[in-house]
Amino acid sequence: MQIVDFKAIAANYKVIFFDAFGVLKNYEGLLPGIENTFSWLQATGKEFYILTNDASRSPQELAESYYRAGAYAIAPDRIISSGMLAREYLDLKVNHGTVAYLGTASSAHYLETTGLKTLPISQVDLSDVADINALVLLDDEGFDWNVDLNKTVNLLRRRNIPVIVANTDDTYPVSKTRIAIAIGALGEMIETIVGKQFIRFGKPDAQLFMFAYERLEHLTLRNGRGNNGPVGKRDVLMVGDTLRTDILGGNKFGLDTVLVLTGNTQPQDAEIQIRSTGIIPTYVCESVVISE
Amino acid sequence: MQIVDFKAIAANYKVIFFDAFGVLKNYEGLLPGIENTFSWLQATGKEFYILTNDASRSPQELAESYYRAGAYAIAPDRIISSGMLAREYLDLKVNHGTVAYLGTASSAHYLETTGLKTLPISQVDLSDVADINALVLLDDEGFDWNVDLNKTVNLLRRRNIPVIVANTDDTYPVSKTRIAIAIGALGEMIETIVGKQFIRFGKPDAQLFMFAYERLEHLTLRNGRGNNGPVGKRDVLMVGDTLRTDILGGNKFGLDTVLVLTGNTQPQDAEIQIRSTGIIPTYVCESVVISE
Amino acid sequence: MQIVDFKAIAANYKVIFFDAFGVLKNYEGLLPGIENTFSWLQATGKEFYILTNDASRSPQELAESYYRAGAYAIAPDRIISSGMLAREYLDLKVNHGTVAYLGTASSAHYLETTGLKTLPISQVDLSDVADINALVLLDDEGFDWNVDLNKTVNLLRRRNIPVIVANTDDTYPVSKTRIAIAIGALGEMIETIVGKQFIRFGKPDAQLFMFAYERLEHLTLRNGRGNNGPVGKRDVLMVGDTLRTDILGGNKFGLDTVLVLTGNTQPQDAEIQIRSTGIIPTYVCESVVISE
Amino acid sequence: MQIVDFKAIAANYKVIFFDAFGVLKNYEGLLPGIENTFSWLQATGKEFYILTNDASRSPQELAESYYRAGAYAIAPDRIISSGMLAREYLDLKVNHGTVAYLGTASSAHYLETTGLKTLPISQVDLSDVADINALVLLDDEGFDWNVDLNKTVNLLRRRNIPVIVANTDDTYPVSKTRIAIAIGALGEMIETIVGKQFIRFGKPDAQLFMFAYERLEHLTLRNGRGNNGPVGKRDVLMVGDTLRTDILGGNKFGLDTVLVLTGNTQPQDAEIQIRSTGIIPTYVCESVVISE
Question: Do the interacting molecules here have an ipTM over 0.90?
Fold first, then answer.
């Protein structure tokens, strides 16, 4: 396994898709020096998007968190989250009534603009559920697992409604040595219990990549960079720290991929994991941080 | 699908194995008239055992709950629970140190006699886990899921120890219309997250049947009923309300099986479920209750 | 469950996506009267595409088979097959060398235009595999399962290469009462054995829907029908006979969906299957055949 | 991970259970020097049994193959195979009619003594299946996969009968570098396709261990070795080369376990596999071969 320099590789592409956690930031905040990477992207006229399975906050809130941390370059329209796919689904497929949810009030906030009423599971009255037309699993925080997971199972025995899981991750890191259970894992447990098929949004699924990819034509025209022809999949590089989401999804969508070693995949494990999973990144880089 | 009379079938066997929940009792207590069944068993000299995936209480406590409800016939030594297998495992395979557990203090009580120290996950200090040599998942009650399931995942990242799941059920009924998530489902979620192989005790696994079956020779001799030769598998009838645990396990162990329609399997669904799962009981009966 | 008239529903959409098998044709050929449906689509200026998990033949060959059967309306550019996604993947991600395959020579024929050499597994020499850079599973026919499935497993132990499964179906019908094992099921078995992650193309995956959807803008402009604005997901209706592929995929992509009862889903089973899987079509119709 | 001497460990037990393939023999035949191990077992009065997932031949045939290879000590009654459990199942649970099978005629031979008629799938007439009351999957050899696996699927759509898989292994080695697909993997594929629950016999399932364990009391008495009290689980050591079958099954049954490095588990992978699976052998030894 050869480790190559990120800047040398990225120079050959017009657009970079970044995973967020483990690539741009970790449990301590933004990676030191990451601002150099964004400066270089801007200086060289490269487009970039952040593709995240984090549905706990709106793109606005996510962008603010980057801004506060000093990454001024990351505007809300650069962030594509699995929560946005959940919102599009509700917008297209659920016409009226109430959407029940598991997650924080903040995570549900941007669902509200779909015109549907939102209701946390904790406030659902199981004897009066006829108005509930969808359930969205947004975040592992904001509810009492003992009470509300049981309530969720019983709601799904009474109402045959679509269930959207807006984050496919099983866990997320909370410190150098600890992880936490993510809503993706809770969703899988409930899906097994009720025996129904949930709708999952998030990498490696193609829909998140498509959502970002569809924005490229628009941006290219607006920026008027004089590219020769429209941007195609060969012009896009996907960068991630996780083989089973970022790299598998990027490969399948037809993009070249970079595995970085600053997150989920430890340097000493990378080669063995690539061999044992058969998920093969186009390149392996230590980090996306560019030294000045 | 032909529905036959339980008494007429049971008359042909020397020993009856009963599942508990859905067969002898439900969320409201013992089935009305169940005492007739036990009277008939005693009058006809039939042995019986109760095979339960309930590890939340000791056989003594379970027997007391039957006694309080009026089923005087059910002594502790008639009850075989998956918790007893967990205890035997610890006894044989874990020689010293501490056993962490998820469940009520009561469920952990009878593990203590193995000579090992028991400690609820809530009291585990993640920075001091060197003494913890096993983890047992006993019951869905008695702990804070938000906090303690995350703690469990992190414990298993630090210690490569055997994990015993003492109840393989995913859910259990709490009222006519509601169910609750059982420790079996929580265990599967954690197993998937940590990627390790847990040890499960409970039907349909053969070990619970074996535990009951091994007692038969002893009892036969003690009772001195003049059976012609030792009791064999052809003399035992397994009765349960769930195809995937009671009937699959009983069939595989080589026993004739009765599906009753007083629990998990609704009368209108029985035929379709038998056909779609391929789990075929020898007989189907409405109930084990015998009218006087 | 209400059964509605296909023509009345389809009248409200600009574009119809059809599954092929079980919707337009079955093991006996095209459904009698299906030409009326295509006449009506043309008369009313509706676009249509056929989305099929059949990778055993090229769109040209598939279109010819429709033509021979009397469906003159179905040009090759109306057919989107999972094989086309496999070909795009190879085109974008595999730059040189040989692609090994399982399937008929005919199924491999249109992979060849990618510039890569194709080689049936039967001709692979396991002692000389350094040049093999991808494996594609195309069809269950055209090879000796006893010999070539074992050879495939051993190839994947020697070469860590991407494996593309170009048909996600487990089975397909071959007569009124018999089915056959499809390459999707053989692929799952091999994936489990080698423990690697294969790349699957085909419904319910979003990429097949995206492939069809991307053609809509182009066609709309060419036809110049004076639509108000571009075609959006609300203008597209997905029609299929299988809940887990056609309907789940269509729903997730954001389309309205029709379940027809001429294929996999029997009329008497539809309601129970919808309830037990939680996969809910927008409409249920008997058939897409329109009586004149 | 400490590697210890097999003889020093085995000296502490009264009974040794051996896996066959990867422990006593490999694709080239018996391990050189294995006769020393059996001499030592006899000299020290230790009982031993061979627990194998190989259902392709009867214990008699298996014993003859050991004899021909020079291991004179291994009598048929020392061999416990998953095929014996399949036979016991048929004996107890299938009273009449025909048992269809996949496998060689030789593998079916010892099923015949159950009094049931046996019929290879190749000779089944799908229009006349009313007499077929069970299906047994015995061996990957002896039939045409293309034809007979499809026939098997269609048989199971017509007859709701128990299906017994007499070998849980997915693969077996055929040379230093090649493996072959075992009937266990073919069985899983068919089980998924037909959506039914098959009955599996073989490690890690407790029933194979139980079958061997039940023989111990009998042997102890016959041999009259003056053991203090009956043999218990603490007196038995299980030796195997595969974590997920031999070691997991032995541990769960309550036995001390030895992982040897002469088969499936390579010396350089043992530690990482133990850590990643959480399946922890009591001891790790290089080989069971004892140098004189």
Answer: yes
